[in-house]
Amino acid sequence: MLSLPGDQTPGNWFGNSSAPPPPGGGGVPPGGCQCTLAVEFVRRWSALPVTSSTSCPRPESLWRNPSFVRLFTAHACNLIGSSLTAVALGLLAHELVGASVAEVMGITLAIRIAVVVFVSPFAGRLADYLGQRRTLVAADMIRALVVVGFLWVEAIWQIYLLAFLLNLAASVFTPVYKAIIPGLVSQTLYPRALSYGSIAYDLANIAGPALAGLIIAFLGFRANFAANGITFLLSACLIFGVPYFRGRARNRAPADSPALLHGVRAMLSRPSLRLALLFSLQISIISGFVLVATIDYVKNELALPDAFYAWAMFAYGVGSVAAALSYGNAGPRSRNLGITAAPPVILGVLLAAGLATGFPWLVAAWILAGAAQVVLGIRGNELLAAYSAPDERPHIYAAHFSLSHAGWGVTYPLAGFTTAAWGFHGAALLFASLSAIVMGLRLCLRAWQ
Predict the structure, then answer these.
(1) What is the DSSP-derived secondary structure letter of residue 244?
(2) What is the distance between the alpha carbons of residues 403 and 333, in angstroms, rounded to a whole number?
């Protein structure tokens, strides 16, 4: 069984340290410098050590790592394919029920959240028994079969059933995939790998609908389901040939595996992993509000054409991509300063949304919101890798995936109900108060440690 006292992790996470970080993420690594009071505050807030920029070796290129390239390409295929299905699913629901499409999509989203929250914690145990490669390949094959099944859907209950099966496989694939990346790359390159993953997600949200439109124009919307099936099969083939998996043990005996809910207990007991959860909660607050409330504000309160909604969401994506690129290329201290600034930026954006009016400020605020949420997301994944042992990492990532989606399960409907009842500005002030509460909770937990 694994033994991780307090908030410590085994040494040699990426093969470059012989001693674990002390509880709470403190300490200056060998070869680093003494921190000033300001830098010490930044370090304590971000929970990762501040290292000297002169002590870091020049990073190699991620694109020369064949295992990373194959896994990243497989993940990109999944993201684009999922975007195709998202577009086609809305059109399929509209074909079946007409004006009640919002209700169908809301139930489908609720199914996704419920499946992720309750199934993801078991993904680590499944990876222990089957091995990581076989788990990923099996998840892709199942999703390929399920998504093709949408071609023959003729009733709403069939959409719900297939959505359940599709998200069942996705709730296993995503955390296991994320848990593999820290073992593929060096500690120096890991933030850049996370940045590329975030950029791939944002670009897929742009390229996917555009590709879906082309397919719809020539073949009809149901052809998107077949195209998504092809992307899942391509992903499975890429993962099957990843060099990283060659020679690795296929599975472990039950006695050697962490306990079934080990990841959940670790997420709630280790201070730095709890911080990762708080970062995820901040992300769900700002992103849930942006994704749900923007359309109401642009269309109903500002009475602007559809294109303005697209531009507002484009600004949100631009902020995310720009911040991910900057974070991946920044030094450790600049990253920590960005982490320190992100929660206040989120609070400021929500306060501005509650007090200001007009489309120009909305674009500026959403750029900042996109930047802040992606920085917190990247740092949260860094914390998961830094404060977990390799053998337990699938369990840690699976538990984080589940618990973070529980936050989305609250903020999505809350944003919808409060925007409908109080309007955009009233809902924004409520979400600003939630953001302030999370910031206060973070400070209280730090003081309590």
Answers:
(1) G
(2) 29
What burial letters (b/e) apply to 288-312, b meaning 16+ CB within 10 Å? Answer: bbbebbbebbbeeebeeeeebbebb
CA distance 22 to 20: 6
Asked whether the predicted pLDDT for residue 146 surpasses 90, the reply is: yes
pLDDT of 76 higher than 90: yes
* Pick from 268, 250, 207: nearest CA to 395: 268
Q: How far apart are CA 388 and CA 197, in angstroms?
A: 20
Name the packing angle between helices 393-448 and 156-184 (round to 10°).
80
Q: DSSP per residue over 263-329, as a string? A: HHHHHHHSHHHHHHHHHHHHHHHHHHHHHHHHHHIIIIIS---HHHHHHHHHHHHHHHHHHHHHHHH
Residue 105 phi, psi dihedral angles, 5° rounding: -65, -35
Res. 248 pLDDT band, cuts 50 70 90:
low
Q: Is residue 261 predicted with pLDDT exceeding 50?
A: yes
- Chain centre distance of CA 189: 18
Contacts 24+ apart (CB under 8 A), 276-279: 276/379, 276/380, 276/381, 276/383, 276/384, 276/400, 277/380, 277/400, 277/403, 277/404, 278/438, 278/441, 278/442, 278/445, 279/376, 279/377, 279/379, 279/380, 279/383
One-letter amino acid identity for 180? I
130: enclosing H helix or E strand? helix 123-130
Checking if the pLDDT of 257 tops 70, the result is no
φ, ψ of residue 186 in degrees (nearest 5): -80, 165
pTM: 0.78
Helix (H) or strand (E) run with residue 422 in it: helix 393-448
